[in-house]
């Protein structure tokens, strides 16, 4: 290698500005997966990644979170213990099955044009229908650099931006010419968020970022008191504020056990013993008590015993 070559600085790798790597419909599906796990509670990034089902450091997680943030489906929240993330009210409104069609349409339009690069393309080219690809591609790879300090896209990235942009506008039902302007903050009204947990849902209680229940429990009833909604869980004497409840599994069966008073707590469990209580479909209380702590082997033994009893009960007489 010559001295001249050695003195030359390394050529920086060509890098494009940030843009959503998936279209809005796919982003909403990812938001739906996360919302099903953590609802609208702000959680640490690691918890949100776990809800998404991938490691927090994986490239898929990093890209997905960045894209959801650009669409406005995910938002950062400042907390005393550090930054947290949650599914935004905009995303909740779109995912709400009870939201009026017009509200959802407005929210979809807002989300579709939230990414800065999409708002820019909309301002210059509208939905790009009838346009030769060379026009928006030239803007992305060259023209925009004159006004944006050289922030242009590579050819490959520009083609991907245009593809995702068109797919997003198509999904959101946005059409129009370059004379159309992006939505302002006031253009899309607040969409009603999805309902909170309901009777029969399997829930966990989260306060201060920590889960309080050893395992999720079903909601037996709800009650409003002093302007707040409270939840009564099976086997628990004290009520919990609805805002601290996180749905783990929605009620599958539309039929619910009859609403009844909570059973009194049994505080006389002998030392060294464990007791579990559950409510059957008829609203009756069932107790299981055993010595020691819960384990896989113990539950398997209980299951085998119950299977044996069921066989005895269903065995036809000779």
Given as residue ranges, the uncertain stretches (5+ residues, pLDDT < 50) are 8-13, 181-194, 253-267
**What structural class do the secondary elements suggest?**
alpha+beta
Residue fraction in strands = 15-25%
The H-and-E topology, N to C, reads as HHHHEEHHHHHEEEEEEEEH
| Strand elements, count | 10
Largest sheet: 6 strands, antiparallel
> How far is the first residue's CA from the last residue's CA?
96 Å
Gyration radius (Cα, Å) is 27 Å
Helix content: 25-40%
The level 1 CATH classification of the largest domain is Mainly Alpha
Individual helix count = 10
Shape: elongated
Structural overview:
- This protein is α+β, with helices and mostly antiparallel strands and about 325 residues long.
- The chain has helices at about 5, 25-40, 45-50, 60-70, 90-95, 100-110, 115-125, 135-140, 155-170, 295-315; strands spanning about 75, 85, 200-205, 210, 215-225, 230-235, 240, 245-250, 275-280, 285-290.
- The strands form three sheets. Strands 3, 4, 5, 6, 7 and 8 form a six-stranded antiparallel β-sheet that branches. Strands 1-2 form a two-stranded antiparallel sheet.
- Helix 5 (about 90-95) packs across helix 6 and helix 8 crosses helix 9 (about 155-170).
- Mean pLDDT is about 80; it is low at about 10-15, about 180-195 and about 255-265.
List its salient traits.
two-stranded antiparallel sheet; elongated; single chain; alpha+beta; 10 helices; Arc Repressor Mutant, subunit A; 318 residues; 3 domains
């Amino acid at each position: 290698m010559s001295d001249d070559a050695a003195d030359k600085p390394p050529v920086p790798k060509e890098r494009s500005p940030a843009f959503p790597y998936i279209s809005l419909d796919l982003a909403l599906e990812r938001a739906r997966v996360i919302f099903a796990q953590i609802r609208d509670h702000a959680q640490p990034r690691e918890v949100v990644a776990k809800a998404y089902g991938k490691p927090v450091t994986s490239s898929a997680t990093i890209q997905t979170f960045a894209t959801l943030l650009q669409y406005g489906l995910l938002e950062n929240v400042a907390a005393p213990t550090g930054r947290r993330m949650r599914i935004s009210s905009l995303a909740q409104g779109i995912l709400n099955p009870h939201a009026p069609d017009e509200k959802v349409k407005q929210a979809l339009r807002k989300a579709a044009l939230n990414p800065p690069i999409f708002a820019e393309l909309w301002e210059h080219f509208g939905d790009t229908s009838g346009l030769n690809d060379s026009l928006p591609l030239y803007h992305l790879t060259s023209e925009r650099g004159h006004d944006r300090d050289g922030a242009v896209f590579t050819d490959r990235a520009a083609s991907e931006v245009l593809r995702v942009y068109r797919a997003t506008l198509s999904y959101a039902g946005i059409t129009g010419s370059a004379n159309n302007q992006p939505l302002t903050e006031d253009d899309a009204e607040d969409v009603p968020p999805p309902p909170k947990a309901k009777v029969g849902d399997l829930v966990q209680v989260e306060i201060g970022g920590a889960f309080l229940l050893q395992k999720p429990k079903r909601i037996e009833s709800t009650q409003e008191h002093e302007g707040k909604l409270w939840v009564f869980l099976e086997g628990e004497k004290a009520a919990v504020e609805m805002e601290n409840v996180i749905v783990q599994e929605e009620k599958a069966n539309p039929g619910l056990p009859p609403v009844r008073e909570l059973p009194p707590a049994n505080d006389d469990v002998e030392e060294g013993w464990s007791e579990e209580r559950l409510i059957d479909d008829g609203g009756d209380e069932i107790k299981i008590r055993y010595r020691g702590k819960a384990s896989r082997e113990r539950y398997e033994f209980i299951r085998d015993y119950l299977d044996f009893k069921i066989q005895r009960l269903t065995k036809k007489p000779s």
